[in-house]
Amino acid sequence: MDAETWAAIAAAVVATVALYFAAVSARAAKKAAIHAEAVASVEQERRDEERERRHEELEPPRPSKIETEVFGTTLYGRLPALPRDYLIRIGLCDEGQPGGKFRFQPQWHVSAHVPYCFPIDVWPLKPSVQFVVAVKFWCPDLDDDHTGPSPWTCKCGGPGLGSYYVLDADEQLSGDGHWEWWAVPIDLPFDEKAPAD
Question: Which of 63, 79, 94, 125 has the highest local Cβ count within 10 Å?
């Protein structure tokens, strides 16, 4: 065989070896991509679980009932002291009314570790009246300006205050709170007579 034939055979061998290693590299790259995708998926699941865990940690602890106090001729409910600041809206429902619609009060900023009182109704109540309470909570830092006395936020991606809208003229509000308590019973005082002035 002449030199040109040997050169052609050598070139063919080199090309075959190169193709083999290219195929091995492609398989390795594909395996690496699959592994990287699996790692990214596991990491995303971990981040999602961490966000959900943190969301649950930030949720205000729900009381079994709302304590009450009478000041003058008004019955007030008292939310327990909460572990951090929240924006809240409180809804009252007179179960004696047909349909049991919640009437929501204006938004309030509730400070951490300070009980919050809210008006319920004129005292004494009618005998058939039994109120339950709904409370919608949001983080105090809903905007990017990070204002307020104690701004913090929940990064779970749940609804902010902008998810609210007015449903009717009675100020029956709809929309999701970031956390919600529904149908918490009110513990009425034992003496259901209005105090003497």
Answer: 79
Q: Cα separation of 103 and 49, whole Å?
A: 35
Q: What is the per-residue DSSP string for 99-135?
A: T---EEPPPEEEPTT--EEEEEEESSPPTT--EEEEE
Query: Which structure tokens are listed for 30?
Result: 């594909």
**CA dist 51 to 44, 45, 116, 194, Å?**
10, 10, 28, 48
Who contacts 101 (Cβ-Cβ below 8 Å, separation ≥6)?
93, 170, 172
Residue listed under structure tokens 């050169």: 7
3-state secondary structure of 12: helix
Short-list 156, 69, 79, CA closest to 112: 79
Cα distance between residue 121 and residue 77, in whole Å: 10
Report how far residue 104's alpha carbon sits from residue 99's, in angstroms, rounded to the nearest whole number: 15
pTM for this prediction? 0.68
- Residue (of 113, 110, 72) closest to 90 by Cα position: 110
Name the token pair of 84.
Answer: 């951090």
- pLDDT computed for residue 185 by the predictor: 86
